[in-house]
Amino acid sequence: MSVSVPEARSGPLSQLKTRQDKPARSLPERLWDWLACFRSVQLAIVLLSLLAAGVLIGVLMPQEGLVEVSQIKAQYGENYRIFKSMGLFNVYSSYWFLALEVLFFFSLLFGSFQWLRPAFLAATRKVWCGPEHIRVSPNHFWLRVTGDEAEVKARVSRLLKKRRYGVHAAPESAGAWRLYAAKGNFGRIGPVVAHFGILALLVASVFGAFTGFKAQKIVAPGEGFAFPQFDSFMPNVDRQFWQGSIPDWTVTVHDFQVKFYESDPTTPQQFIADLEVTDNQTKKQLARQEISVNHPLAIGDMTFYQASFAPTGKLFLEIDGEPKTVEINTRFQDRPISLTELGDPADQLALVVFPFFVQQDPGVIRNHVRVFLHRGEGFVGGAPGQMPDNLQLFEGQEGVLNGMRVRYIKPEIATGLQMKKAPETAAIYLAFLIICVGTVMCFFSQRRIWVAIEKDGNGEDGNSGDRHKIYFQYKTNKARLSFNKELDALKRELVAELAPTTANTSDSTEKIS
Amino acid sequence: MTELLLNESSWVHAGIVFLIISLFLYVGRTLTRNPVVREMAWGTLLLSVLGLVGAIAVRSIQAEYFALSNMYESMMVTAIWIMIAFLVIDRWFRLPGIGWPVCLFLLVMVAYATTLPTDIRPLQAALQSYWRSIHVPIILCSYAMFTLAFISSVVYLAKGAFDRRLGRLAEAGGPPLRGPDSGDTLTSSLMHRVYSHNLEEDLKIRESRPDGEAVSVNVYDEITYRCVAVGFPLLAIGIILGGLWANEAWGNYWSWDPKESMSLVTLLAYGVYLHMRVNGEHSAQTLAWVSVAGFVMMLITYFGVNLMGLGLHSYGKIGSYPALHLLDRA
Ligand code: HEM
């Protein structure tokens, strides 16, 4: 085999660098240079660590909003005020955390501008190297081959292409045969894409903070309301800075149902509200749709979520076959109850209903009521000191109380609607997509191989035209292990393809040591 | 027969038995470096993963939803991801020293999982979403990658400590050259002598930094890096999907709850790792420690927020799946 491969050497490249005298620089140039400090990965490492530490504090310390303030005070006693002033109970809106985020933003912003060009160039620029360059590189090997020069070149090219390298020969004007082979160029752009995505995310969320809002409204079925008559309205930033707008719409809830699991009647399976939204200006219907948990209604940048449910206090009954709606209107021993006069006011007869609701009253597994009759000063029926006559009725059940037929149909349940305006949504989704694509791109390595050829020997043996040395220089930005595996395979193939005319095996082995 | 096939625990037991056999074979493989043992160890681990996949499949059929809603199920799925990822890595890099620690870790993990409550319960309204079956497995896959990164860092650190004790590392001329693990072609000895590496653990790969100075690359260090390089985008995507899900269901991408925040800490910790790596000024040993720290963050995310009741805000206990804490807001 006529293959020789010298030991890799570390090149004295650093010594080749020459110092240049700096000409006077303009102000923008100097500013640019100064911003270069943001490019420092060291700064990124420090900022990422500090952010991680900050978020960690937010996890370890009880945060106001998640935990009752009184509980925190009890836990921390005298230290409460000190910790509070350090923002430890409100980490995510504390000044130091905000400052960290701003710093992070600028580091990312100016950093990105700074590596955009180098990364883009590394991914797109083709560079060719001659043997004199490759020889001093620490990552190179060479082969001594004998045979037709054109054939050798074609084979090298083909082997690299087979490994999916994009192979580019130097232009004629370069005067010599050189190859530049690269693959995974997009991997080089990955970090730029990922960081750009994070920037886009930060910008989009700031935009959303100044233009978006959240609002809540509890609406009984059959009723509606016009914007902005919300129960609560929360712009994402302080009102005085808020720049957004509220659409002029009316929302009607046509129907609302809560379904429970049959196997577990305390776990709601789904809440479903039938919504209609109309534009007050055009009087046009914008949407009519059922919404439920995980299935909100989106109209442009407004979204309607099914957030919760709550009894309105209305109870639907039937008394002697006649529909009767009663309302919770008073309290009895601190329990909300309904007291409704029946018949002639002179009779002083009243129906008293104690409602019990799943998920509101402890231990209750099905909605039901207890019904009493009340006349004058006391309950009707029952011995003194004992529970007066009453009926326990589940939904749909009927019973007879003092000769009166009472049926409990159901309680009225209102839907808790949550509304959100988020003009930034599309931008956020786009940023998410960019981050995902960018971080995945980062996984791939950019691998580059430079090839050059040089005549070997000077004709003593009479076939100088046939003897060549081919130089290979290789480089990857990551995934060194698989790259080395690939190189090993490539070398094996080169040996098999380029050295059919064995001439100097002993020579090659000697050269290695 | 169908009864046996539809019995979840027979699948789990088969998986565990194969895992134990695989552990012994991987120990044998480290000691002997015999290619037959290597193939057998790999094959048994493959059988083991099939057992666990079967168990989850049977369970899903019985529950009528993708069985990934409590701690037991999530640990099983994580174990499956670890196994699959390791099978790929082992096929690709054939590292003799890391198989048995991985198997040992898996065995402890699966054994612990089987002690957790395994009853099948109906799903809350908030969890009946296709997001659940995308978001959760992706996060668990990233956890699997970080676990492998952790194991390979520990192997690296342990080996370093061991080598230092033997005083081998300081020797001039570097470590002795050894034959490759895999059977190689006739050019192999030439290759090794020239490139002074053989894809094996204690050989150094000469590579260059941008300034042209040669640095050595350790195989375990490299495995850690590649695992983090896979885990990081997965975790980022998983967190983003979680944000989308929360936004769709509750109208909020992010609400700084301890579980969410802790997953962000984990992401940032591995971000620190990646940037320290890009920087190129940190030793493989420092990087291995950063990877261990990232793993600790991951453990706190996975268990801590629930078990320790961190931030006085613990959602559910073991038995209800932690990452699905969001349902509390429904
Ligand atoms: C303080 C802000 C940050 C700065 C200044 C910064 C800087 C850098 C630099 C200079 C690189 C190397 C780029 C290259 O190889 O061409 C890099 C890589 C990277 N950065 Fe950042 N970064 C920052 C924040 C982040 C954040 C928050 C993430 C999270 C998504 C991130 C994810 C990455 C990834 C995934 C890589 C690629 C790592 C690899 O190639 O293995 N960076 N960063």
How would you characterize this protein structure?
The complex is a heterodimer of chains A (513) and B (330). By secondary structure, chain A is an alpha+beta fold. Helices cover 33% and strands 32% of the residues of chain A. In chain A, strands 4, 6, 10, 11, 12, 19 and 20 form a seven-stranded antiparallel beta sheet that branches. In chain A, strands 13, 14, 15, 16, 17 and 18 form a six-stranded antiparallel beta sheet that branches. In chain A, helix 3 runs antiparallel to helix 6 (95-124), helix 8 (149-162) packs antiparallel against helix 11 and helix 9 runs antiparallel to helix 10 (425-443). The radius of gyration of chain A is 39 Å and the shape is elongated. Chain A starts with 12 loop residues before the first helix and ends with a helix. With 330 residues, chain B is an all-alpha fold. Helices cover 67% and strands 2% of the residues of chain B. Chain B has a two-stranded antiparallel sheet with strand order 1-2. In chain B, strand 1 (205-208) and strand 2 form a beta hairpin. In chain B, helix 2 (8-32) runs antiparallel to helix 3 (35-63) and helix 4 (71-93) runs antiparallel to helix 5 (99-114). The two termini of chain B are 43 Å apart. The chains are: A alpha+beta (513), B mainly alpha (330). Chains A and B meet through helix 3, strand 8, strand 11, helix 10 and helix 11 of A and helix 7, strand 1, helix 8, helix 9 and helix 10 of B. The structure holds protoporphyrin IX containing FE. Protoporphyrin IX containing FE (HEM) sits between chains A (41, 44, 47, 104, 107-108, 111, 115, 119, 191, 194-195, 198, 439, 442, 478) and B (229, 232, 236, 271, 274-275, 277-278). Protoporphyrin IX containing FE sits between chains A (41, 44, 47, 104, 107-108, 111, 115, 119, 191, 194-195, 198, 439, 442, 478) and B (229, 232, 236, 271, 274-275, 277-278).
Task: For the structure shown, list the relevant keywords.
heterodimer; A: 513 residues; alpha+beta; seven-stranded antiparallel β-sheet; six-stranded antiparallel β-sheet; 22 strands; elongated; disordered C terminus; B: 330 residues; mainly alpha; two-stranded antiparallel ribbon; 10 helices; 2 strands; binds protoporphyrin IX containing FE
